[in-house]
Write a structure and sequence with these properties.
It is built from 18 helices and 12 strands. It has 400 residues and is α/β, with parallel strands linked by helices. It has 2 domains: 273 residues, 3-Layer(aba) Sandwich (Rossmann fold), CATH 3.40.50; 80 residues, formyl-coa transferase, domain 3. The strands form 3 sheets. It has a 7-stranded mixed beta sheet with strand order 6-5-4-1-2-3-12, with helices on both faces. α1 links the parallel β1 and β2. The longest helix is centred in the middle third of the chain and has 22 residues. It is elongated. The mean pLDDT is 95.
Amino acid sequence: MLLQGIRVVEAASMVLVPSAAAILADFGAEVVKVEPPEGDYNRKMHELPTLPQSETPYCFLVDSRSKRSIVLDAKSADGVAILHKLVSTSDVFLTNYRSPALERLRLRWDDLAPLNPRLVYASASAFGEAGPEADKPGYDTVVYWARSGLESSLLTPEGTLGQLAGGAGDHPTALALFGAVALALFARERTGRGLKVGTSLLAAGAWANSWNIQAQLCGATFPPKLPRSQARTFGVYYRTRDSRMLKFALVNPEKLWAPFCHAVGRPDLVNDPRFAEAGARRAHVQELIAILDQIFATEDAAHWKARLEAHDIPFAVLPTYAEVAGDPQMRASGVLVDLDHPRFGRLATVDSPISVAGVPKAPPRAAPDLGAHTREVLGGLGYTERQIRDFLARGVAVQG
């Protein structure tokens, strides 16, 4: 495996940084998750009333699989000393602690680099490390989505939007952090020295929304949001006979217009003067939407799926989560993989979205119980059994 022999220390909570560490573990890195005595709050995220209800801690299962957990009281001098010793033996340090906490715990780059000149130090924050908001708290819903402008783009003309999926900004940002770590490890191979790298929810959100932001930077004029009854294109949602929502993407309409007309069983529309050319379609778009509304309402989604696939039209029938979880394409392409859990049995989980031809990933393992590996990690650092018992007795460390 590509990262076998690489040790990663994760001193972080919630989603962004832990999910980046999970990707590193997928490629064979040893990840030691350092948690406070109360544990990472992500262990309880599945209990929030806005999220799907389950006795399985599915949020933590995804973001902390294949790791070892050690519990340290970083408020104690001995706890910090143990963490420093752990970092001195490691290749990568990952954190999302804010600047005041990093300073208090002596976990800044300037604190750790002298302990380990080959250390790759990777941090992620809400707003970046400079500027007046650098030390503010933030989560993906209010930074990645809202501050980047992405959420404004998604709002309907009525100003409404459904519940954003949990972690839907953290997980893409984690890919940026993973890429930064990989880049630093590559540079270390050339120079022999570690680097400090980082990302933020704000930066990743802006990158995700970069077309619209670049448009504004270039002085573009943004069209107003319009309800469906005033849509400017026919690429809107359509309801099938069995009340499924259908959407398609005719990004190259000059190429796809004729196949699309044949797919919906109306070849006569190809040369209809109202729709034959792009300008005419825009002028008569509401007439076209009305025609397509009637057409799609005559058959179930399965019928239109077969027709659109047969004519190579990019489309989607908006799936239920049961359909997503059972999607055969996700299985066939390795998006969903199996995991054996000691408490919950055989489960499937979502694999990280990176593959390397000819290089296997590490089979995913269950996320660890809180402090499950504290004794093991302390022993590996050279602490004696007497010292370990003392740490545990004083609460400096906790064994699960």
